[in-house]
Amino acid sequence: MHDSLPFAYSMPEPVYWSPEVAGKPGSFLGGEQCVIENEHFFVRGRIVLPVRDAEEDLEWGVWVSLSPANFSRMAEVFENPARVQEPPYFGWLSTVLPGYEPTTLNLKTNLHTQEIGVRPLIELEPTGHPLAVEQREGITMARVQEFAEIAFHR
Question: Taking the complete model, does pTM exceed 0.85, yes or no?
Fold first, then answer.
């Protein structure tokens, strides 16, 4: 039994690999955005997996890399309520999620802006990757328990 499940990542994968990068010139790591040396741009969002045998879905808190133009546009409309009308932003998943083979790193995504105060939704490209399949078809509570076992008992 676990009171909460840690299915959120506080930084994109490149920062996990080299934590010192966040302190370099032109870099910052915030709660919702990350920039590495004014060259790599990341935004935090949510991948939602429907849980077929439960009332709540599983949400992964992950990071997506965006192009400089898309990152700039997101920042431009960040405080604008009309941002929900923005088209999705293409990005690359920048989080390695446990329990998936092959890796989830660099899967193609579309990031959908939500209303102010709500993290973006991340839609995976509809491929045969297990994460993309689970996003489309859903998972069971047994699968959620597998994730919890990996997270708490590796």
Answer: yes
Is residue 5 domain-resident? no
Q: What pLDDT sits at residue 119?
A: 95
CA atoms within 13 A on the CB side of 72: 5
Q: Please, are residues 153 and 146 in contact by the beta-carbon 8 Å criterion?
A: no
138 lies in which domain range? 13-153
Percent of the chain surpassing pLDDT 90: 86
Neighbouring CB atoms inside 10 A of 78's CB total: 12
Is 4's pLDDT higher than 50? no
Q: Which of 20, 35, 2, 21 is nearest to 152 (CA)?
A: 2
